[in-house]
Amino acid sequence: MPAAALPVAQSWPGVVVPPALLVPVASARPVSVPQPVKARTMEADESERLVARCQAGDRSAFRELFLRHRSDVARLVQRMMGPGADVDDLVQEVFFQVHRSVKDFRGQARFSTWLYRVTVNVVLMQRRSAKSRPLLVEAPEGLTPVDAGLTPDEDAARRSRIAAFGRLLEQISEKKRTVFVLHELQGLSATEISEIVDAPVLTVRTRLFYARKELAELLRSEPSLAFLADELHSGEEDGQ
Questions:
Q1: What is the number of domains present in the chain?
Q2: pTM score, whole prediction
Q3: For residues 17 and 28, is the Cβ–Cβ distance under 8 A?
């Protein structure tokens, strides 16, 4: 049975965090965000219509695909690469690959799943070519959203938790980290991820299980993040 996902994450350039990190520890609670299934279905149908137009030679359709999915691709690139990466260049590379390969898209998977697969492959190639893994650190001043409801001390603690979470996430192996990001931060199912990373569903669930287990152990080493480790553990016990 798949492990429970953390609450849907919020992000901004170079930073990926569960919502619980954005509020004072004393008030942190799991957040439930319903999935707009009907909206996602309509989005998928429209994307497939645009793909068909692209395959028929309609150049304007590809621009519509780019505008429709650019932000999703950018978020995934940011979450996998961390700060310091040239996100715009990687997004352009993703859509270059899409433009080159869209003629071969046969609709065996949803277009968004296929697009995520292209994005993951581009990011992994970039990370491997860099020969060193960049550390996720706190976003530069001005990029982190300001929460007017927090005191200065609470905001400083929040920023510290965000930076610590990113550093810990970088310590997980690439395959486990990729699955964790796609499931916990992008909100994708194990079945969708299996199509993206080209691995059996059981393998995806195994990687996710060990990613969560390793991250929980790392979180316990950070006093400010121990409460997240407890949420991971309780989610596994619930069998979600």
A1: 2
A2: 0.69
A3: no
